[in-house]
Amino acid sequence: PICHYEAVNGRLCFSRPAAHGNSLGTPGGHSAPDLDVMKKIVLPWIKKVAGERPWVWQQDSAPCHVSKKSQDLLAANTYDFVPKTHWPPSSTDFNPMDYFLLGYLERHTNRLAHNTKAALINSIMKQARKLDRALVAKAGFSFRARIQRVIDTEGRWIE
């Protein structure tokens, strides 16, 4: 998919998988074709899915995401846009993929040896499909508490 979304605190949150990132590899910013994809495909799709519900767009700090063209496009065309000046620091404490999913998959796929890359990939995919939705939701709900702990410690490392 070009994007995936989930409801968080009554708002739709969208993200774009890395595989659909700046595919043309233009350093320092989105190229015209990349911005066209955003305008003609991604944003209309999000607006169709969200309907009248509020939604937020936030990107990571990839060079193409911090470019003035990208920031201006999104600020002008999204329901609620988080500019680069308000992004949280890159931290495993803020990323459920880091503090939950990768560790879970590693624990469950490393129980057996894998002789090939394909076997490892298949094992990872099998374990991901078996994930209990309640367990994933619990990891997502811990996000707010993790942010609060970082705020309380003034950005210092937390356990």
Can you tell me about this structure?
This protein has 159 residues and is of the alpha/beta class. It has one domain: Nucleotidyltransferase, domain 5, CATH 3.30.420. The chain has six helices and four strands, in the order ββαβααβααα. It has a four-stranded mixed beta sheet with strand order 1-2-3-4, with no helix packed on it. Helix 4 packs across helix 6 (133-152). The longest helix has 20 residues, at 133-152. The radius of gyration is 18 Å and the shape is globular. One of its GO terms (molecular function) is nucleic acid binding. This is LOC100197594.
What key attributes describe this structure?
nucleic acid binding, 159 residues, alpha/beta, Nucleotidyltransferase, domain 5, four-stranded mixed beta sheet, LOC100197594, globular, single chain, 51% helix
Q: In terms of topology, how is this protein built?
A:
Layout: E1 4-8, E2 11-15, H1 32-50, E3 55-57, H2 63-66, H3 68-77, E4 80-81, H4 96-109, H5 117-130, H6 133-152
Parallel strand pairs: 2-3, 3-4
Antiparallel strand pairs: 1-2
Helix pairs in contact: 4-5, 4-6
